[in-house]
Amino acid sequence: MPGVGPRRRPGRLANRELSWLDFDERVLALAEDPAFPLLERVRYCAIVSANLDEFFQVRVAGLKDQLAAGVTTPAADGRSPQQQLEEIRARVEALSARQERAFLEDLVPSLDAAGVTLVRWSDLDDTDRKVLVEEFHERIFPVLTPLGVDPSHPFPYISDLSLNLAVVVRRPDDAAVVARRPGGAATRFARVKMPSLLPRFVQVPGADRFVPVEDVVAAHLDVLFPGMQVVSVHTFRVTRNADLTPKAEEADDLLAAVEMELRRHRFQRAVRLEVSDDLPEAVTDLLVKELELEADGVYRSRGPLDLRGLFDVAELDRPDLHHRPLVPVTEPCFAAADADDADLFAAVRRHDVLVHHPYTSFASSVEAFVAQAASDPHVLAVKMTLYRTSGDSPVVASLVRAAEAGKQVAVIVELKARFDERANIGWARRLEKAGVHVVYGLAGLKTHAKVVLVVRDDLDGLRRYCHIGTGNYNQRTARHYEDLGLFTADATIGDDLIDLFNYLTGFSHEPVFRRLLVAPHDLRGALVRLIEGERQAPTGTGRIVLKTNSVVDPELIAGLEDAAGDGVEIDLVVRGICCLLPRGPRRVGAAGADGGDRAGRAPRPIRVRSVVGRFLEHSRIAYFANGEGEGRPAWYIGSADLMPRNFDQRVEVLTPVYDPVLRARLRQIVDVNLADDALAWELTRKGRWRRVRPTAGAGRVDAHEQLIELNAERAAPVPRPR
Q1: What does pTM read for this prediction?
Q2: Do you find a cis peptide bond into 358, omega within 30 degrees of 0?
Q3: Catalytic residues, which ones?
Q4: Domains plus CATH for the chain?
Q5: CA–CA separation, 547 and 388 (whole Å)
Q6: Which of 195, 177, 201 is nearest to 187 (CA)?
Q7: Residues 236-265: tens digit of each pLDDT
């Protein structure tokens, strides 16, 4: 057998930040693609804007923090923070210009042709204006607060991601110069914020017509500034650093520390200023100065700012402009003639169950599992991790009922889940009030694992019922995110989860897990050993398939490159960031790069593809053809991506899947992803993403549509013989 060599540094890597922007370009390509339903294309356009917001809040903000701290250490790809910011600026400008063209020159005219109009105030007729004047006075004007800037009124705080009007006004009889503006007369600057409770695009009542909210407000500035002459009005928007780093030493507990950081967060530094392209330089200079920005933080736009508001437009009830509705199926073993009589515990006792959202129902599986645990008198304890959940979560309601029924309920609530900190604090307090044991995880780690453990007193003794998933316990995202979950009563996996929860809630030493792969304990090491196992397998049998959201970790990338160089066949399905570049196979000598016997092993290129479409590909699947030794494959699903943070800074769980029927389903999911030629992109050797095109004469494979059909067929009742 070939020996295991020393870890080799990976070759040239792609830049993580630029790879993120690559993903946004793939999403934008869907907004540009006339093959997709029109309102779905509008949704993709909104997704690009939301993604860019997060990119600046987190990634650009982090690079700017490095610069401010004097950090010059290059990233893994060799670029310094300054070089990355310069390349990001160029890429974002090109991406934003392309998005503007798609929106203004394609989507807006196409929507108009379909009877959905996005218009400016000047395009409205008198009837529509009259209706919107009433709407303004009844619903908009009462919540507006104009803020002037002069010696007695300091420049106001501009909140993160808020849309604002920069209004330049002049008092006709005021000769005092407050700020010199284009036009040669004494002028004053004022800011009007569009409150977040207002719709981004105001719908004309009774019609599928939408007007930017800033147009409606701008048309009524005489009401906001009576007696003043409006010189000009423009839109601007600020993005701030969204990083929360709780300073636990300043508070008695993590909850208080996170709350303190949330209060500080509103004063985080600005990292981007978006302005309408007609904003005068003098006003731009004022904003840059007051926001303490550099000139390279300003981005001009000829279209409306903040296209996240298109999410509301995309929700229009126009079935002809949407994908066909998806009706999630219930797993056959979870179904019953009367849904109220379904016994999920009995089904899981018989055999493991795999659920695949959104194709299979989250409500009739995960939600029903926790609800049954809450009401079942034989259930003694429920333990669960909560990373992100929804505002009206049935899962949280079930946990409250379980605690009120006297069951032992313990929940690990991750307070540091970015952008959900405030919501998670609210859930934590509600759960504590109901008597739930709430724990906020371990210092220095985020609890990202998706696990539920139910301890039940069955007739033959205590049994552990487990759910281990790839996605959050959130019924809203479960309709749009593609995720997997395993229900099992496997005793060893149950014992592993007990050890995990004891580790998270108590003072236990690091446990030894028998079947689960757990970070930060040994997840990276376990994956490295599995990769090495494929290198050591008999010639021609090594095979690895990884489906994940991101591939960043240098050690894992090095391991994959080594394996490919020694003849292991590798396919990666990566939705988002991929720092591995699929160069041609490296040359190895007869003895191999690590001194082992590699004679006769032809190196193989690593194939990398990305599936981007109707559903957000979120599941993580790992396949190793020899993972259990001697040609016996191993399949895993779980919460971790191949990123340093997932291995070192988070609690993650991957579970093996043993049931042959469930393994066949995982293989089917992987095969469909690898066969897709409608939604898939391939990463070239030069690090560029290229759209996969259907083979001439072959049938088109849309992974999402095919999986809808396959799940519907599997769940269809079998006709009974007559």
Answers
A1: 0.90
A2: yes
A3: 448
A4: 16-321 (3.30.1840.10), 332-510 (3.30.870.10), 518-715 (3.30.870.10)
A5: 22
A6: 177
A7: 999 999 876 655 443 445 555 555 554 555
